[in-house]
Amino acid sequence: MKEKIFAKTIGVGFASFYLVLTLMVGIAGAADTIKIAFVDPLTGPNEYVGRAYLAGTQFAAEEQNAKGGLFGKKIEVLAEDSEGKPDVTVRKFKKLILSDKANFMTIGSGSNNVIAATTVATEFKKVLIIYGGLSDEIMGKHFSPYAFRLCSANHQHMTALAKMMAKKPYRKFFMLAQDYAYGHDANRVFKELIKKYVPDAQIVGEDYHPMNNKDFAPYINKIITAKADCVFTPNWGADGTNVIKQARSMGLKPPFPFVTPLIGYDPYINYNVGSDVVGCLSAKATHIRLNTPENIDLVKRYHEKHKNDKDFLYWWPWSYIMEPLLAWQMTFAAIEKAGTIDSDKVAATLEGFSYKTAMGLWKVRECDHQVSSPIYGAVVSAEPNPFYNGSIRPDVNFPFLGKEIIVFPAEEMIVPATPDYNPRCK
């Protein structure tokens, strides 16, 4: 029954998305507009990730437009489907820049596509706002003077997770990741940091699987054979759902822990996995349950606009919605400070720029354009949650992030600024 409901929500989401996209295309040529080129997956197994990113970007633009836009000009978000492919990502961005006259670029999924986007940003001298794509090498060896990652990344997440595990009894880690840039980088960083913060930790296995993998049984058998008492996986999207569901079905039942930066924050994964997601440990720079006036107000504003949407993906500003939302709020503030949309002047303003977000103070480090921010650790809990609890629709009732939040200071999380990482950092 869940699968049928999930399929219906996907269908409704597509219809709503393409209606909005059609309307945007119709006005794309209007005068006195500032255009954001958005390229992320809008088809395929991870299309919901792109839709969530688009919702957050659009919400930030709509709120800015309600305040008069930028310099009296309306902001438009022009969306294209990356299909999850680097070559398509490049082609779509070039089309939006050359044909649609986009002023800014933005992307989040995944690291291979983000790396491709940085080459376009450099070629056309367009400011690129990254709200996903978590591999540290994006702001290191693939650095672009026009690219700014205004979200937390690998080193920040892994530092928080390693510190969380230092207070847990688990010591035998199996590492399982998607076989692409982010998966390899995430495993590498976590391996380094778990040995730093948990000196007696053992890595009893490490493996990689294709993106959008259907059968995890061979990998789970390796985990069981290795006698791991914990699994680290940076999986997201469809792979996040499948690895948890299949692992639980093969005997790795709760409280067997999965340490993962992303899974616990994802309502689609939690909906499909149900109670088996309980115990997943996560860490990110956004947390919907953060009890500050700024966050409470933002969640309320967003929910008021989306509470009647048919697809529960949009009801609450979970991480994939909150990340582009905050990134663009910060960017709009920097553009206003720059007093222009000129790429070089906006880039110069963003270097070292500080902004008080609903999640605390964020600051862009000058040498690598990586934002420094607090990180919030959390565990998916079986306790009732105030969001996906059946109160809006009875079937949308599943475990989510628990109320306990572990706060990690920004300055302790960010990747060290060394020349080996990025020659600009000294």
Descriptive notes:
- The chain is an alpha/beta fold and 426 residues long.
- The protein has 2 domains: 232 residues, Response regulator (Rossmann fold); 164 residues, Response regulator (Rossmann fold), CATH 3.40.50.2300.
- 41% of the residues lie in helices and 17% in strands.
- The protein is built from 12 helices and 16 strands.
- The strands form 4 sheets. It has a 5-stranded parallel β-sheet, sandwiched between helices.
- The protein is globular, with a radius of gyration of 20 Å.
- The chain starts with a helix and ends in an 18-residue tail after the last strand.
- The N terminus is likely disordered.
Please supply descriptive tags for the structure shown above.
4-stranded parallel sheet; 5-stranded parallel sheet; disordered N terminus; 12 helices; alpha/beta; 426 residues
Judged by helices, strands and strand pairing, the structural class is alpha/beta
Name the beta content range. Answer: 15-25%
Based on CA atoms alone, the radius of gyration comes out at 20 Å
CATH homologous superfamily caption of the largest domain: Response regulator
Number of domain modules: 2
For the record, give the distance between the C-alpha atoms at the N and C termini, rounded to a whole number.
56 Å
Shape: globular
